[in-house]
Specification:
Elements (H helix, E strand, L loop, with lengths): L17 E8 L2 E9 L3 H15 L4 E8 L3 E8 L4 E8 L2 E8 L5 H12 L1 H4 L1
């Protein structure tokens, strides 16, 4: 904002391909962003971008798994106060962010299972 022009950036990038949700698990709110891309390659590129952005800010713990048919990443910030989980399967990408806390393994599993269950997803 050098000349009075205000530029607003939104992260994660929101367009017609993303839906934002809030899940309440164990009285805590988790922000979830879901992309349905045109192809698995496009979804993989989106996953890579999200992983690079989430992993670039003061990470305490970071890991990822890349298989032929899916990708998974977990990023925990210093202090263990914020966490991001990123999944990609087929043409779907999911980013789950927990502001102010880290998720329990069972909460991670519940989000992953419910979001990739075809009957729930549709």
């Amino acid at each position: 904002q050098d000349d009075g022009e205000v530029i607003r950036l939104f992260y994660p990038p929101e367009d017609d391909s993303v839906r934002s949700l809030q899940f309440e698990l164990n009285s805590r709110v988790i922000n979830v962003y879901i992309w349905k891309m045109d192809s698995a390659d496009s979804a993989r590129r989106t996953w890579e971008t999200l992983f690079l952005v989430e992993g670039s800010v003061l990470t305490r713990d970071m890991g990822r798994i890349k298989k032929a048919d899916y990708c998974y990443a977990k990023v925990v910030r210093f202090g263990g106060k914020d966490q991001a989980l990123i999944w990609q399967k087929e043409n779907w990408v999911v980013l789950a962010k927990s502001p102010g806390f880290t998720m329990e393994t069972e909460e991670e599993r519940q989000i992953l299972t419910e979001l990739f269950d075809p009957s729930i997803r549709s």
